[in-house]
Design goal:
Layout: H1 6-22, H2 25-36, H3 38-59, H4 63-68, H5 72-94, H6 99-109, H7 112-124, H8 132-146, H9 155-164, H10 166-188, H11 196-211, H12 224-249, H13 252-259, H14 262-274, H15 280-299
């Protein structure tokens, strides 16, 4: 096997860094929402990320003009799905009943790779082998296990956990489904990764309007501002840019394989940051979600890269 040339090493390394940055998203956002409130955090983070991204586009000759010339179906249709994904995930995090549920939500959120592959069959005309259903079932089984923290591993326990506070789980599932739809439809209508700053800005402004209609109390401290800047710049802006470069110039197969570790890395970081003691069922849930995504990918005869060059949040 030949060694990668020097020009490929840097994009590949940046792709690995993007994976690590994405893994910190949920834990960091939960820390911020606990201090600032759900919509204050989301509006600030994504507006800042969008403004910074648009500034970069404006400084690149012709970049903003090319983005605005993209198909309207992509800018408005796929853009709306991207905004819905961001809003769903952030609302799920903010409305969670404690840090334990936040960790469980992270597992639900990472259903999107398997859902993306599943939707690529009807939307993009990919051909699926019979074990695609097995991959989706394994991912759903992972979510089932994730909701068993503190209850018996039974359907009754699942129903009890879900019924206790269903909103965050439903918001997280909505975000995962919206991102899966975005990932497939953006390819169908000829989208381009350069529009992500506009989508981030649109999400920030929309969540800012929602913030005006709700009452939230924010507690600012010396820890909050660096975390806010980090959330806006690193997982919300840099990670997408790094991943886009890596998909174009790096080792795609290696990075696609490593990307399946995001659910486990995300749960590990979130548990560490939020001081959550995970049970064995949570780790088993992560493994099932990852295994489901891998099997789903292997079942698609016409390879469909996952995650796509523009992935959310998350």
């Amino acid at each position: 096997m030949t060694q990668p040339t020097a020009p490929r090493r840097l994009p590949t390394a940046l792709g690995v860094l993007a994976i690590l940055l994405w893994s910190t998203t949920i834990g960091c956002l939960r820390f911020l929402t606990a201090a600032l409130g759900t919509f204050t955090t989301a509006a600030t983070v994504y507006t800042l990320a969008g403004v910074l991204g648009c500034m970069v586009l404006a400084l690149r000759r012709g970049a903003l003009r090319r983005v605005l010339a993209l198909p309207k179906a992509y800018l408005f249709g796929c853009g709306a799905l991207c905004v819905l994904c961001i809003a769903g995930l952030n609302t799920a995090i903010g409305f969670s009943n404690g840090n334990q549920q936040v960790v469980e939500i992270s597992v639900v959120n990472y259903l999107w790779p398997a859902l993306t592959l599943f939707l690529s069959v009807p939307i993009l005309g990919r051909k699926a082998r019979p074990w695609l259903a097995l991959g989706v079932i394994l991912s759903l089984a992972g979510v089932f296990l994730a909701l068993q923290q503190g209850t018996r591993t039974t359907w009754a326990g699942f129903a009890e956990r879900f019924a206790d506070r269903p909103g965050p789980y439903l918001f997280a599932l909505t975000g995962a489904l919206a991102w899966a739809l975005y990932s497939t439809l953006s390819r169908r209508v000829g989208g381009d990764s350069g529009a992500m700053p506009l989508f981030l800005l649109a999400a920030g402004l929309l969540l800012g309007l929602v913030r005006l209609t709700v009452k939230e109390s924010a507690t600012w401290s010396w820890k909050v501002v660096p975390a806010l800047v980090y959330a806006a710049v690193c997982p919300s802006l840099l990670a997408y840019s790094f991943w886009d470069l890596a998909m174009r110039k790096g080792r795609i197969v290696l990075l696609a394989a490593l990307s399946y570790l995001i659910p486990i890395l995300s749960v590990a970081f979130t548990c560490l940051l939020l001081s959550v003691q995970p049970k064995w069922t949570l780790w088993a849930a992560c493994v099932l979600v990852v295994a489901g995504a891998v099997i789903s990918k292997l079942s698609i005869s016409d390879p469909f890269p996952s995650p796509p060059s523009e992935s959310d949040d998350g």
